[in-house]
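JOB MANIFEST
job_type = single_chain_structure
chain_count = 1
residues = 329
[input]
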Amino acid sequence: MIVKDEELALPRLLKVAPIFADEIIVVDTGSADRTVEICKAAGCKVYFYTWNNDFASARNYSLSLGKCDYLMWLDADDIVTEERAASIKRLKTSLSADMVMLPYYMGEPPKTVFWRERIFRRDMGYEFIGRVHEAIEPRGKIIYENIPIVHSKLKPRDALRNLGILKKVLAQKGTLGGREAFYYGSELYYNGEFDEARTWLKKFMREPGSRADKGQAALYLSEICDDKLKELEDGLKFVFAPDLLCKMGEIYLSRKDIRAAKNCFLTALEADENVTFFNPEATGYLPHIRLCYCYWHLGNKSKSEFHNNMALVFKPNDHFALHNSTLFK
């Protein structure tokens, strides 16, 4: 872990980490609270790193300190339940892959999910890239395991931190490309600088880059551009994602075009790829509950009831679907 002023979150994670970790390495980047004291008391190996506005650099320093065959990274405000910690421990007994991808939940139940390179062989020489939103490029023998890690902050993040770092990178380089352009446009979007966000996200869409990031950029652009459907259609050229199709369906519903909306939601149920930060409801509950609405207004009550029942499979206590059930009696 790399940490700074995480005295509130650390006890939650350090309680379970010893279940699966043979060593716990903490790199402190300038804490002024009890972070270091808490880590040392828990038996962690604590090191110090002078912060230089480069998350990848700090992460890579932490990787250089590991001595075990496999390395795993976590953030201090991540949650690993005891059950999932036991699953990671069992995974170690048969692990032969170079890299293990685990789902990363933003909250639980998650509003967004994405897969992260979470565990990897030390002798493969993996390194993080990116001053913000740092990541390791997947390579080698990769496996996917459904052991979610939950990201749950206990204190607000500085909303301008990442944007400030990327603005300094832009000033140094003169331009940005690839994932840096994507994340710069994303941070501008998050912070309401929509004119500049449009410029950088559209630039990213024209240049080489991750297909999943292209889909995510299209979602952002659909929120801040006049021709929302065109932006989503451009995203579908790169990634066949239910998020994009559900968003298109919502736009058609707002225009009272029920048939076009129905077709989008039906197609979403077949979509088998994801944008970077995908909404798990877009793969099941959301298209089904919207199809219930569409078929009801198209006069097909049997199909409306079928999709309402399917929505209840995904969310048994959903008050919308439970209310709809009373209409079919």
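[summary]
The mean pLDDT is 96.
The radius of gyration is 22 Å.
exit_status = 0
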